[in-house]
Amino acid sequence: MVMTDDVRRILGHYDGDTPGTRSNLARLLMAGRLGGSGKLLILPVDQGFEHGPARSFAINPDAYDPHYHFRLAIDAGLSAFAAPLGLLEAGAARFAGEIPLILKLNSANSLARERHAATQAVTASVDDALRLGCAAIGFTIYPGSDAAMPMFEQLARLAHEAKAKGLAVVVWSYPRGGALSAAGETAIDVVAYGAHIACLLGAHIVKVKLPSEHIEQDEARQAYVEARIDIGSLAKRVAHVVQSCFNGRRIVIFSGGAAKQDPALLYDEVRAIRDGGGSGSIIGRNSFRRPRPQALEMLDTIVAILLGKI
Amino acid sequence: MVMTDDVRRILGHYDGDTPGTRSNLARLLMAGRLGGSGKLLILPVDQGFEHGPARSFAINPDAYDPHYHFRLAIDAGLSAFAAPLGLLEAGAARFAGEIPLILKLNSANSLARERHAATQAVTASVDDALRLGCAAIGFTIYPGSDAAMPMFEQLARLAHEAKAKGLAVVVWSYPRGGALSAAGETAIDVVAYGAHIACLLGAHIVKVKLPSEHIEQDEARQAYVEARIDIGSLAKRVAHVVQSCFNGRRIVIFSGGAAKQDPALLYDEVRAIRDGGGSGSIIGRNSFRRPRPQALEMLDTIVAILLGKI
Amino acid sequence: MVMTDDVRRILGHYDGDTPGTRSNLARLLMAGRLGGSGKLLILPVDQGFEHGPARSFAINPDAYDPHYHFRLAIDAGLSAFAAPLGLLEAGAARFAGEIPLILKLNSANSLARERHAATQAVTASVDDALRLGCAAIGFTIYPGSDAAMPMFEQLARLAHEAKAKGLAVVVWSYPRGGALSAAGETAIDVVAYGAHIACLLGAHIVKVKLPSEHIEQDEARQAYVEARIDIGSLAKRVAHVVQSCFNGRRIVIFSGGAAKQDPALLYDEVRAIRDGGGSGSIIGRNSFRRPRPQALEMLDTIVAILLGKI
Amino acid sequence: MVMTDDVRRILGHYDGDTPGTRSNLARLLMAGRLGGSGKLLILPVDQGFEHGPARSFAINPDAYDPHYHFRLAIDAGLSAFAAPLGLLEAGAARFAGEIPLILKLNSANSLARERHAATQAVTASVDDALRLGCAAIGFTIYPGSDAAMPMFEQLARLAHEAKAKGLAVVVWSYPRGGALSAAGETAIDVVAYGAHIACLLGAHIVKVKLPSEHIEQDEARQAYVEARIDIGSLAKRVAHVVQSCFNGRRIVIFSGGAAKQDPALLYDEVRAIRDGGGSGSIIGRNSFRRPRPQALEMLDTIVAILLGKI
Amino acid sequence: MVMTDDVRRILGHYDGDTPGTRSNLARLLMAGRLGGSGKLLILPVDQGFEHGPARSFAINPDAYDPHYHFRLAIDAGLSAFAAPLGLLEAGAARFAGEIPLILKLNSANSLARERHAATQAVTASVDDALRLGCAAIGFTIYPGSDAAMPMFEQLARLAHEAKAKGLAVVVWSYPRGGALSAAGETAIDVVAYGAHIACLLGAHIVKVKLPSEHIEQDEARQAYVEARIDIGSLAKRVAHVVQSCFNGRRIVIFSGGAAKQDPALLYDEVRAIRDGGGSGSIIGRNSFRRPRPQALEMLDTIVAILLGKI
Q: Residue C52 is nearest to which of D13, D189, D247, comparing CB atoms?
């Protein structure tokens, strides 16, 4: 594995971390077809936990099988595969070493009553990640929610342990709940704030939703107006989020949003991520809810976009 | 103990587990008259905790004695005997090595006021299971209930410890409470979702109730209709649950439901489990609330059904 | 200490326990004037915690002194002395080895407001019991109360530790609170259920109140009627509770109830305990609230009854 | 340090404790001008935590300096100095070995809203006490309050640790809150009950407020009437509290009550403590809120009273 | 590093601490242009956590980059740089040894709903501080708030650990919430009380807001009047706070208050801090929200004021 200058530059931002953690960040950045480019494309499969198996997999029944997702991620040449404990346990031995794994340590579900769905259950441990040969742990926080404080504290403990054991830390930062409006959950000020909090909590890689033009907090609006921050295009908003992540010293990736019929819409988003300086995408249901040939074609196109070829 | 190909194939699904855990799964799969067939038939006795001793045993007073249950399970050639701490302590030494044991780590009771009965007390530990020579721990979760999150987290911690100590993990997944209707607790979408969650939480063996044709969640109904999932027969529904458990990569067994006068009803259910690809049954009160000769005869018939002989 | 066949048979019921724990059970069963008979008579002094010193001891001021109780239990030839931490600390060295001790690990008090009195505080540890040379720990649970779940979990942890350290576990099982009526607290179905739960939680010795003829739970009533359980005399009810404790595989002892002027009433109860197959009595305020000579005479009579001499 | 018979007799009451703890009790009983008499006079300075610095020290500004209190206690020949963590840290090195120290492990404050003031924060640890060379830990409980149960459990854990590490345990037992009336907090039955609970929780030294003639609990009143307990004088009430502390087997000391202009009132109280068999006094604001010469004179008089000289 | 007499005198106040902790206090007191003077000037950057990145940095976009703050603090010759985990991780390796670091262990945020904002999340550990080469931990308490008790207990545990590991402890004491009025949060009695509590909790360095003339608590007002405490000027109020911190035996520093256009207002405050005997200032947004040249000039002036040159 010959390290590229792009990756070496990025790893330089993590000079406070141990060689173990930096090696695992390097594994993620050097894997798959984007390896060495400094870009990341990740397959996450936790939708079965969040929405149940039928809503996730019935449309493409092969996807009931954990091996399907491992193979899809490997064959598409992705950077990593992220999933909850049981799903990784079902394939980590068979596909050992073929793709970097991220163990998602907490999960939500939609069987729970609304007010109990305001948080996530911690369903696995850092030692589980080591046992399964993972490169990183994944953890979701809900900034703004009434459960945010305990979630931050859980993350702080788990991230500390992960770093001490040489793993990387990927944080899904999804503001929601509390005083936030529905539109506020993807407002540019809120997404940027949530991304910044993830960085302050010690995330190596931050995962957020693509931000809208909406500004949620009055105090923030004033700052956006006074400083004349340009949020008029998706690429500009991506750039603002990247700036909010220690001015680009932390890797930020963006989710593909709702399931989409037309992949062209997705390609436009990925171009905006690339043009705004984002580090890549994380694409779940848009991958595994399509037939495998279409999914592979779509992922192939996204790789090409991230590499700046199209 | 000459391993059969059926069991070897099933153990292959657990290639991410330690030799210790796989040995204990093998113990369960190679024990009794179903040994080697890949099927399981388990006797659980926790009804005394849930409903009290008189409602459980007065009808067949011999069953007040823990040894009665050990002997019944052994003489019927079952795969395992599952019970709470005290009950196993009372016979584990006397019957050491005669049948695999599953220590049930949490229990509910019906003395508690309704709202306090929404969860279960953790009444034993993984180390208790080791001390008593058990092959597995058993743990109940209530997906959908207001206590689901802490129950998932308890299971995550106990399952991690059990695996590290070479035990297998059996999860009773009983959706209930919260926003679920009474009918929803056995709705096909809810049972499949609950089984899937158990798999994601790292269960080796999942135990659910037999699902009805009812669909509880509106979002799920759409998926069932669109994907034309056939849930018109019990066997089809069993097959759907098996599919929801990592497409058959995890063992799923089904409970015998309410106490039944006529064993023929039970036999029909077991045939549906077998025909749908389920891995077997767990039959408590339908066993120990009958006189021993009748119970042995009934269990003998069920073994024959599971073996495909009748 | 020459072991009797009666005690050997009882110890046989605990064959799943370590030699350490069985030795301590043997200490209890071989101590005092009932030593070797398989019967137990225990002096508990936690009334000062529950009702305060004046209500407990002012009637017999010598009883303010912890040594008074040690001497009373020793001179009466009892099986054990049970008390909270401080009281044992005040005499355990002076009377070391003269009588088996049971450290009561949790306690209630009547200064607390009603709703806070629904549980007990854990005021000592298993290591305290070892330090003081005790043979057993004692722990109270309130099945049915809103605090029952955490109490069961506390007991599970403490009992596990006690067994690992070679001590015996005595559980005071007092159903109360929650949905139970006042009469329900001593209803035959509830007392039997509470005793059964204590056994399932791993108690070696269960202590309950004497049950009344009342049946509290409707579902249970049906079982009593259908199975024609005879609860028409106190001795029959004692026998039913003994049966509910693993058909006699666990030791059950009964409390003496409210303070009584006339000891004859107490003697009748003890005869019923004996005739129903109960293992003995635990008598607190009926002992130490009488002048010492009368208390010794009363305890002497009870010993004779338990030995079947009168 | 030549041990006196009085102290040897008192230490005999603690024969269940380790040599380490007994040595520290001896340090307290042999220190200062009361050394060897079996009496104790302690300076506590936690008023700054409870009422703030201005209300505590502005009247005598020298008292803002922690060294002032160390010097006052040493120069007055007191038995010990008790204070929270920071205050001891500021002088423990400078005055090492000059006077026994008691580290107060929990504290209340009057900035908190009423209902949050129902408990105290645990602000230091047993290891802090060891690090600072203390002879004992101090801990306040509020029997009767809604926070009493967790306070008892905290004390149980800390006392266990302190004893295992050779320290003595001093418990401030202040009934309050819950169902108690304001007058009830110093009612004779309540003070005696609170003192008894402290003993049962394993305190070596109990500190209570001087009791009034009021009886708070109806059930208790009956016991006082029936047993004709004499509570007609302060000395009699002190004697009753001493009796409630294991009939004198535990050291009980009394607080000086509200700030007093006229020291003569204080002297009368101390005489009652002495005549009732109390082991001494703990006097805070009555000491440090007077000018140093007056404080020394007052403490000198109290020592003389406790020694029976005046 | 030749120690000055001023610093040696201050370190003398910490004679109860380990050589490790005293070395780290010395690092803080000997660093930068104030090194050796006994004064401190600290740059804290946690505003991004509290108010989000746009409100904090958009006005001076260079400040999005963590390295900007490290360089500003180093180039201005400050005593220390304080920030949350992620921000320090992003520069601690690059700037290792160039300036003492303080790891802020807890943080608030303004995305949370009001009632959830009454506390702070603990987002890092003492071991994180060691790993990053910090000289001290920082921790915020809210005396008076409904969350004060658990915050005090968290601080107690973390401070104990920090001291055991040779670090210094800096406490931000910000009374707020509970029964306090808005004006009360900076009332002289409340600020002095909050500072005193921080000292009692074992802080080495206390950080408070500049107090107003307002007196919040009626009981306190009486003490201020009776003792004729002069709070008529800011310098006098600073002196009163210093007195409340163990009569100057603990270092107290003051925050710069709200963002100010005119630095002259800030200079007046710093002069009052100096004249009142305060140990220095902590200035965040007033530093990094100005362009770097102006910030450097302002900090240069403040240093000169603290050194008594202007």
A: D189
pTM: 0.96
Please indicate whether chains C and B are in contact, defined as at least 3 beta carbon pairs under 8 Å: yes
When scoring B13, B18, B21, B149 by the number of chain A Cβ atoms within 10 A, the one with the most, hence best to mutate, is B149
Q: Across the interface, which of A65, A85, A120 has its CB nearest the CB of B247?
A: A65
Residues 6+ apart with CB under 8 A from C245: C195, C196, C198, C199, C206, C251, C252
Query: Mean pLDDT of all residues in chain E?
Result: 95
Distance from CA of B79 to the nearest CA of C (A): 22
Per-residue burial over C61-84, b = 16 or more CB atoms within 10 Å of its CB, e = otherwise? eebbbbebbbbbbbebbbbbbbbb
Mean pLDDT of chain B: 95
Give the nearest chain C residue to D17 (CA atoms). Answer: C89
The secondary structure of residue D299, as a DSSP letter, is H
Q: Does B193 touch chain A (CB under 8 A)?
A: yes
Picking from D111, D114, D115, D123 by the largest number of E CB atoms within 10 A of its own CB, the best residue to mutate is D111
Contact A122 B223 (CB under 8 A): no
Q: DSSP class of residue A170?
A: E
Cα Rg, chain A, nearest whole Å? 18
SS3 of chain B: the string is CCCCHHHHHHHHCCCCCCHHHHHHHHHHHHCCCCCCCCCEEEEECCHHHHHCHHHHHCCCHHHHCHHHHHHHHHHCCCCEEEECHHHHHCCCCCCCCCCCEEEECEECCCCCCHHHHHCCEECCCHHHHHHCCCCEEEEEECCCCCCHHHHHHHHHHHHHHHHHCCCEEEEEECCCCCCCCCHHHHEHHHHHHHHHHHHHCCCCEEEECCCECCCCCHHHHHHHHHCCCCCCCHHHHHHHHHHHCHHHCCEEEEECCCCCCCHHHHHHHHHHHHHCCCCEEECCHHHHCCCHHHHHHHHHHHHHHHCCCC
Q: Are B285 and B278 in contact (CB under 8 A)?
A: no
pLDDT at A257: 66
Q: How many Cα atoms occupy the beta-carbon half-sphere of D259 within 13 Å?
A: 11
* Residues of chain B with C-beta less than 8 angstroms from the C-beta of C243: 53, 61, 64
CB contact under 8 A, D89 and E16: yes
Residues of chain C with pLDDT under 50: none
Cβ within 8 Å, pair E200-D91: no
Interchain proximity E219–D112, CB inside 8 Å = no
Cβ of D121 and E192 within 8 Å? no
Q: Do E109 and A197 touch (CB under 8 A)?
A: yes
**Is the dihedral angle over the CA atoms A243, A249, A250, A256 positive or is it negative?**
positive
What digits encode the pLDDT tens for the residues C239-257? 999 999 999 999 999 997 6
Residue of A207, A209, A236, A309 marked catalytic: A207
Q: At what angle do helices A188-200 and A218-226 cross, to 10 degrees?
A: 100
So what's the pLDDT on residue E197? 98
Does E194 contact D at CB distance below 8 Å? yes
**Would strands E121-122 and E106-107 be described as parallel, antiparallel, or unpaired?**
antiparallel
**What type of residue sits at position D261?**
Q
pLDDT tier at A67 (50, 70, 90 boundaries)? very high
| β partners of residue C40 | C280
The interaxial angle of helices B5-12 and B19-30, nearest 10 deg, is 140
How confident is the model at residue D143, as a pLDDT?
96
